[in-house]
Amino acid sequence: MARGPKKHLKRLNAPRHWNLGKMGGVWAPKPSAGPHKQRECLPVAIILRERLKYALTGKECQQICMERCVKIDGKVRTDMNYPAGFMDTIELEKSGDRFRLLYDTKGRFVLHRIQKEEAEYKLCRIQKVYVTAKKVPVAVTHDGRTLRYPDPDVKVNDTVKVSIATGKMSDIFSFEMGAMVMVTKGHNAGRVGQLVHLEKHDGSFSIVTVKDKKGNSFATRQSNVFVIGKGDHPQVTLPKGRGIKKTILQERAEAEARGDL
């Protein structure tokens, strides 16, 4: 009898976007329970070992974490399997590194290097708004935060700017036509564009149409889009490629021009 949640994760069952080699061992770091889902996060161990190459083994990842070197969203995390997710800021004070976790146009996590000023806030998508039993209005964000007494204008699907030091929200970026959005799930994950249309389907999934800078439009579910700014002004700096997906022919032509092929 299996009692309780699984404690292990095999490498072949790990999410594809972690880009772990198939032959590099049997196991993968299993993310702890935390603010992001297991399939939509990047454990600290993978950030340190596979991405930044600051560690060679899991044991070294553990030592780095236990020396209190890793801060996620301003808090020291000593668990090397802690799940960091979309929009989280990762700070390694000893090496002076600051990153924000974003997606590239292929739907993989990118450690996007940011400045100190930008590391002081993050954007959070509002998942639900309700009133508690004690009559306190609260908003719940995509990373598990509960914002008490939020601005009454906040609606589900909007994005709020949250200060990492205080946890208080400041600006609201509402989900409306013309808003700048990033797709966080599905086939178009990582693409950035402007909202141009919303089809509501009661009892089913509402579909939004997004148009990118190059004029390509694509559709996805409303729950897959994350507002990152108004018009052409994103509130966070975007990773290389600016969220514009290239066709495989364009990618090949660019690689030939660089001399990679």
Mean of the pLDDT scores? 91
The number of distinct helices, counting runs of at least 4 residues, comes to 3
- Provide the helix percentage: 10-25%
Shape: globular
Could you give the order of the helices and strands? EHHEEEEEEEEEEEEEEEEEH
Short synopsis of the structure:
This protein starts with 40 loop residues before the first strand and ends with a helix.
What features would you describe in this structure?
The protein has 261 residues and is mainly β. Helix content is 11%, strand content 33%. It contains three helices and 18 strands. It has helices spanning 44-51, 58-66, 248-258; strands at 41-43, 70-72, 75-76, 83-85, 89-92, 97-103, 109-113, 121-131, 137-141, 146-148, 159-163, 169-173, 179-183, 192-199, 207-211, 217-221, 225-230, 233-234. A six-stranded antiparallel β-sheet has the order 16-15-14-13-17-18, with no helix packed on it. A hairpin with a 5-residue loop joins strand 6 (97-103) and strand 7. The mean pLDDT is 91.
Keywords:
mainly beta; 5-stranded antiparallel sheet; 261 residues
Write the layout of secondary structure elements.
Layout: E1 41-43, H1 44-51, H2 58-66, E2 70-72, E3 75-76, E4 83-85, E5 89-92, E6 97-103, E7 109-113, E8 121-131, E9 137-141, E10 146-148, E11 159-163, E12 169-173, E13 179-183, E14 192-199, E15 207-211, E16 217-221, E17 225-230, E18 233-234, H3 248-258
Antiparallel strand pairs: 1-4, 2-3, 2-5, 5-6, 6-7, 8-9, 8-11, 9-10, 11-12, 13-14, 13-17, 14-15, 15-16, 17-18
Helix pairs in contact: 1-2
